[in-house]
Amino acid sequence: MDAIALLIAATLSAGTILAIAALGLLINEKSGVVNLGAEGMMLCAAIAGFATVVHTGNSWLGFAAGMAAGAFLAGLFGLLVIWLNTNQYATGLALSLFGAGFSAFVGVGYVQEKLPEQTRHAIPFLADIPFVGPALFRQHPMVYIAIGLALGLIWFLYRTRAGLVLRSVGENPEAAHALGYPVRRIRLAAVIAGGALCGLAGAYVSVVYTPLWVEGMIAGKGWIALALTTFATWRPARVLFGAYLFGGVTMLQFHLQSLGVNVAPQFLSMLPYLSTIVVLALISRNPMWIRVNMPGSIGKPFYPGA
User: GO CC annotations (predicted)?
Assistant: First the structure.
């Protein structure tokens, strides 16, 4: 039972990274913009957050620095694809490549650095409940913030006028423009907000999840988060479920190894990516289901004067 509780706790922690990043990308795609630069933004945010904590000793300042780094890079991406009408897919890939190289360059001096001792978090009384306490109530606050973000995004998208406007921009920007809405500015705001969340996820990796800096430490999590938006058919609640599902698959490899299961470690390491491919392949068998839920203008440029 203790092993199961530890697996659940590790799943929540690992899934938090994917959940926060995927929710950010979901905001992007609800506005009609596809950002393939999540991996690069998360890497830059990871080194920004880690360096900030090294120099200040405050993890929350590290999260703020990661969000700022992600928002800044997303803003540059938004200016290129929304105002200069560059190709969204090529620009996003360029951002990922830039982020990988730039973070490696900046992070050279931080490879051997160590963060201050982390505070152990626990919800009073609830953390002492057998099995449930260690599994659910001894998590970093960011785990609970990720759940709150998903609930807040559901409310924003489906219960507020601003959320309705955002979805209308993603469905039919020409109609939204005809009604007087500033489509480009709305898309840019969505892209920056999504970048900030990707940055928060990146900072969480280097500050809490694996409190160190190593080149390329995001290790494909940005791409999995991108795939999660399709897996979830652009629904925040399903994003949260998918994040914990993939997080569980990721952590299962370590628990199987600790239990002495005789499986090649290379096979266990590829499980998260293999499961991503399998899920996307299964979803793709029903293109009508994707088409019904997918924002109508996703990936398509908007020309106000056209």
Answer: plasma membrane
Given a cut of 70, the residues of the chain with pLDDT beneath it are 1, 257-261, 263, 265, 268, 284, 289, 305-306
Q: At residue 53, what is the residue type?
A: V
Give the Cα separation of 72 and 85 in Å (integer): 19
In a 10 Å sphere around its CB, with 0-12 CB exposed, 13-18 middle and 19+ buried, how is residue 256 labelled?
middle
* Residue at 284: amino acid letter: S
Q: Write the CB contacts of 306 (distance below 8 Å, at least 6 apart in sequence).
A: none
Query: Are 113 and 46 within 8 A, CB to CB?
Result: no
Alpha-carbon radius of gyration of the chain: 20
Residue that has been written with the tokens 């099995």 in this structure: 131
Could you give the CA distance from residue 63 to residue 48 in angstroms, rounded to a whole number?
A: 9
Q: H or E element: which one contains 47?
A: helix 38-56
Q: Which fold has domain 2-293?
A: ABC transporter involved in vitamin B12 uptake, BtuC (1.10.3470)
What is the three-class DSSP state of 114?
A: coil
pLDDT tens, 106-117?
999 999 888 988
Model confidence, pTM: 0.92
For residue 303, give the DSSP letter: -
Q: Which amino acid is at 290?
A: I
Task: Kindly report the number of other CB atoms within 10 A of residue 27's CB atom.
Answer: 27
User: How far is the first Cα of the chain from the last one, in angstroms, to the nearest whole number?
Assistant: 62
Determine which helix (DSSP H) or strand (DSSP E) holds 35, and give its type and residue range. Answer: none
Q: Which of these, 31, 4, 35, lies nearest to 22 by C-alpha position?
A: 35
**Spatial distance between the Cα atoms of 201 and 228, rounded to a whole number of angstroms:** 14
d(CA 253, CA 268): 5
